[in-house]
Protein: 4-hydroxy-tetrahydrodipicolinate reductase
Organism: Flagellimonas alvinocaridis
Amino acid sequence: MNIALFGYGKMGRMIEQIAQDRGHTIVAKVDVDTKEIPYHKMDVAIDFSTPESAFDNITGCFEHKVPVICGTTGWLSNYDQAVSICNKNQSGFIYASNFSLGVNIFFELNSYLAKMMSGLEQYNVSMEEIHHTQKLDAPSGTAITLAEGIIAQSDYKGWKLDQEENNIIPITSKREGMVPGTHTISYGSSVDSIEIKHTAHNREGFALGAVIASEWIQGKTGVFSMKDVLNLY
Ligand SMILES: NC(=O)C1=CN([C@@H]2O[C@H](COP(=O)(O)OP(=O)(O)OC[C@H]3O[C@@H](n4cnc5c(N)ncnc54)[C@H](OP(=O)(O)O)[C@@H]3O)[C@@H](O)[C@H]2O)C=CC1
Ligand SMILES: O=C(O)C1=N[C@H](C(=O)O)C[C@H](O)C1
């Protein structure tokens, strides 16, 4: 498979390594200075760039019918527009706030726990995410997906960063050293607490998931999620 990398930073480099190990070829590394983007060479584009550049990168690919796997976070106010450009051009698209198998299992666990806890008024939920100091967005995309998972199963109406309000999930974002990504969800009452936590030890899981998604989307048109790729129940 011929892969183009949009963004060749920490994730782009890790994806290159894993993709080559799985027999794929990197045909382009696109960054802000790239003058001519060789869409005709690409079977798939993988975007791990920046919140500011992701939308233009992705939609440029759709206009050339190149399917896109996007892991960039912090640009989702334009997600619906990206979906309609994908559909209009009969291209393929998977966005995931987190491509790792472990986090996608954690998403399911989070929904299940939220369903069990809904209606138990003695418990309040809160979330903490910790990432490296170079991260541009807060809260993390993964924390937003986790909050959306809780909201779908409960009476919580939304989430807010560093703010306690009725029916709102408070999210705390910490930036420390080189932390690849740690997410904790806590339900607290006056007598006890329940916590679930996912800790990434490195970026390999994210990168492998993105390459597996790229393999999966070959020959497909439409908009999919990692749930489709991993076939989790
Ligand atoms: N979904 C998931 O599983 C994961 C998502 N992420 C997300 O992926 C994104 C990238 O993360 P990470 O690799 O750690 O970040 P990095 O900052 O290490 O890499 C981003 C790269 O994008 C480049 N870039 C800047 N502008 C453009 C442009 N217009 N087109 C293409 N590339 C551009 C940057 O170049 P320069 O440095 O020259 O500006 C940089 O090399 C983030 O949004 C992060 O949250 C990260 C890990 C997992
Ligand atoms: O920026 C990162 O590093 C990460 N970003 C994603 C997010 O915002 O959730 C995924 C992972 O946690 C690492």
Observations:
- The chain has seven helices and eleven strands.
- The domain at 101-199 is CATH 3.30.360.10 (Dihydrodipicolinate Reductase; domain 2).
- The helical segments are 10-21, 54-63, 79-88, 101-117, 141-152, 204-217, 226-230.
- Residues 180 and 202 are 6 Å apart (CA to CA).
